[in-house]
């Protein structure tokens, strides 16, 4: 008798696509999107493995049920927003994989699958691997690059994106705090405070365009790292270079 986890996974695969996190021979976790193979016997109960089609690579793969750690999917109870989010996540994964595949071909990088599907590799890790050939802490990399006389266009572009992402993350942290205060003001029925907090939140919501434009205008890494948008101060410690 199969356990309920596997039974639910089988049911979800019959309904559509599933994002599965699993191990491949080691404790390293990989995340890929699958659908059941055309063959109705996509699960072999004798050997306890799935035969699934990887949507991203369009390849047939075998996964042991014991290697599966978790999965993400939608069902009949998922609302329209949840379905849209899931579908967009798969589209983004596929689009990103195609982009990385083209990039690695141009630099003779042959283990794209290993680093692209690793769950512990963030988008930043993947960009580091592509541009610099290694994955090291971002703040260490940028600190080291500040001493380089002249960066390549790709290197400076990468660092600008890191700085923009850092601003966006900081902005979202502040907005989360504001949301909590707005909720409290709503409970207290304080109309003046609520209006003030919503106005402040709107100002933060509109500041992305400012720091995006400003950071992209810089010509050197020093200009980038010397800048931090006033609304998102203080900067996180790792970006205080």
Short key terms for the protein model shown above:
single chain; alpha+beta; SH3 type barrels; 3 domains; six-stranded antiparallel beta sheet; 14% strand; flat
Notes on the protein architecture:
The chain is of the alpha+beta class and 241 residues long. Strands 1, 2, 3, 4, 5 and 6 form a six-stranded antiparallel beta sheet that branches. The longest helix has 36 residues.
What can be said about this structure in brief?
The chain is built from nine helices and six strands. The protein has helices at 4-15, 80-106, 112-116, 123-132, 138-145, 153-188, 191-205, 208-217, 221-225, and strands at residues 18-23, 29-36, 43-44, 49-54, 59-64, 68-72.
Query: Which structural category fits the helices and strands?
Result: alpha+beta
Shape: flat
The total count of strands amounts to 6
Domain module count:
3
Helix content: 40-55%
Low-confidence stretches: none
Integer-rounded radius of gyration: 23 Å
**Cα end-to-end separation:** 58 Å
Largest sheet: 6 strands, antiparallel
Task: Please report which band the strand proportion falls in: under 5%, 5-15%, 15-25%, 25-35%, 35-45% or over 45%.
Answer: 5-15%
Q: Residue-averaged pLDDT, rounded?
A: 80
Q: What pattern of helices and strands is seen along the backbone?
A: HEEEEEEHHHHHHHH
Number of helices: 9
């Amino acid at each position: 008798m199969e356990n309920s986890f596997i039974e639910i996974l089988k049911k979800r695969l019959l309904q559509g696509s599933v994002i599965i996190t699993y191990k491949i021979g080691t404790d390293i976790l990989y995340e890929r999107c699958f659908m059941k193979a055309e063959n109705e016997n996509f699960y072999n109960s004798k050997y306890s493995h799935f035969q699934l089609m990887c949507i991203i690579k369009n390849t047939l793969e075998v996964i042991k049920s014991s290697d599966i750690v978790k999965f993400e999917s939608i069902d009949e109870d998922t609302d329209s927003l949840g379905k849209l989010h899931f579908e967009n996540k798969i589209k983004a994964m596929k689009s990103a994989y195609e982009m990385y595949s083209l990039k690695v071909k141009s630099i003779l990088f042959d283990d794209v699958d290993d680093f692209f599907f690793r769950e512990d590799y963030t988008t930043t890790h993947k960009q580091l691997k592509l541009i610099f050939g290694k994955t090291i802490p971002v703040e260490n990399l940028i600190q080291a690059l500040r001493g380089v006389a002249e960066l390549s266009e790709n290197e400076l572009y990468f660092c600008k994106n890191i700085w923009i992402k850092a601003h966006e993350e900081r902005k979202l942290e502040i907005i989360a705090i504001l949301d909590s205060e707005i909720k409290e003001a709503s409970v207290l029925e304080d109309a003046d405070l609520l209006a003030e907090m919503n106005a402040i939140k709107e100002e933060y919501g509109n500041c992305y365009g400012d720091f995006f434009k400003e950071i992209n205008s810089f010509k050197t890494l020093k200009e980038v790292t010397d800048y931090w948008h006033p609304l998102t101060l203080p900067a996180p410690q790792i970006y205080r270079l």
